[in-house]
Design goal:
This protein has helices at 140-148, 199-202; strands at residues 22-28, 31-37, 55-59, 65-70, 73-79, 82-87, 92-97, 102-108, 112-119, 122-128, 154-160, 166-172. The protein is mostly beta strands and 212 residues long. The protein has one domain: Lipocalin (Beta Barrel), CATH 2.40.128.630. The strands form three sheets. The chain has a four-stranded antiparallel β-sheet, with no helix packed on it. It has a four-stranded antiparallel β-sheet with strand order 5-6-7-8, with no helix packed on it. Strand 5 (73-79) and strand 6 form a beta hairpin. It starts with 21 loop residues before the first strand and ends in a 10-residue tail after the last helix. Residues 3-7 have low confidence and may be disordered. InterPro entries: CHP03032.
Length: 212
C-alpha cells in the first residue's frame, strides 16, 4: 500500500521503515477495503511532520484517497453502510461522508482514541492517555481539552450512533494508561483480563463449547 489519488505511488521503495505510519485496516464484506495512515510521507519517520493535519483514509481496491486532512486517524471500521473511524489527534469519533470526502464528527472524547467495535447502534470506543512525548504533543486534542476544561482519560466510551450521546463510560486508573483495541464478546457474562505470568493463568481452563 502506498498510492495516492489516481493510483500514483508515493512510496519510492519497499524498506523496513515507518514512513507513512499506516495504522488501521477496515474490512468490508469480509475483504480488506480501507486503511488509515498519518501522512503520505516517503522518508523515514517523515509522518511525524504530518501528525496534525495530513492524515488520510485510502481505498485499497482503487488506491484512491477518500478522506484527507485528518489528524492521526485510527481504527477504521465498516458498520451498517458507513465507514467509521477516529480522528485521534482531535479526540473525535465520526465517519466518512463519501459524497464530499469529509470527516463528519459524531462525538468528542477526552483522550487519544484507539480501538473501535459496535453493539448494534452503539459504538464502543477505546480511549488512552496521550503519551508524554513528541508524537502526541502539539495536537488539536490538547487545545480541545483545555477549552473544555477537561483532563485526559483512559477508558471506554459507549456512544449512541443516532444521537452522538455518551451512554456509559468505563474509566481506567492506576497503571492502565493506554488501550490498543476493543472487542465485543457476545454471550460472555464474566470476562476477565489475566496477566500471562499470573497464578490465575495457571489455574484457568479453556473448554471448546462444541464439546457440550
Amino acid at each position: 500500500m502506498g498510492h495516492s489519488e489516481g493510483g500514483r505511488s508515493f512510496i519510492s521503495r519497499l524498506v523496513p521503515e515507518d514512513r507513512c505510519h499506516l495504522n488501521g485496516l477496515a474490512l468490508r464484506d469480509g475483504k480488506a477495503a480501507y486503511v488509515t495512515m498519518v501522512s503520505q510521507s516517503d522518508t523515514f519517520d517523515g509522518w511525524r511532520d504530518g501528525r496534525r493535519d495530513q492524515g488520510l483514509v485510502m481505498d485499497i481496491a482503487s488506491n484512491e484517497i477518500i478522506c484527507s486532512g485528518l489528524s492521526m486517524p485510527h481504527s477504521p471500521r465498516w458498520h451498517e453502510g458507513k465507514l467509521y473511524l477516529h480522528n485521534s489527534g482531535t479526540g473525535e469519533f465520526g465517519y466518512v461522508d463519501f459524497a464530499t470526502g469529509a470527516f463528519v464528527p459524531i462525538t468528542f472524547c477526552p483522550g487519544y482514541l484507539r480501538g473501535l467495535a459496535f453493539m448494534g447502534n452503539v459504538a464502543v470506543v477505546g480511549m488512552s492517555l496521550p503519551r508524554d512525548n513528541k508524537t502526541f504533543s502539539g495536537l488539536a486534542l490538547d487545545d480541545a481539552l483545555e477549552q473544555r476544561k477537561m483532563n485526559p482519560r483512559a477508558g471506554i466510551y459507549f456512544i449512541d450512533l443516532a444521537t452522538g450521546a455518551v451512554m456509559h463510560t468505563i474509566n481506567f486508573e492506576g497503571i492502565v494508561t493506554e488501550l490498543y483495541d476493543v472487542a465485543i464478546l457476545p454471550g460472555v457474562r464474566q470476562p476477565a483480563a489475566l496477566a500471562p505470568a499470573s497464578a490465575e493463568v495457571r489455574r484457568t481452563l479453556k473448554v471448546d463449547a462444541s464439546n457440550f
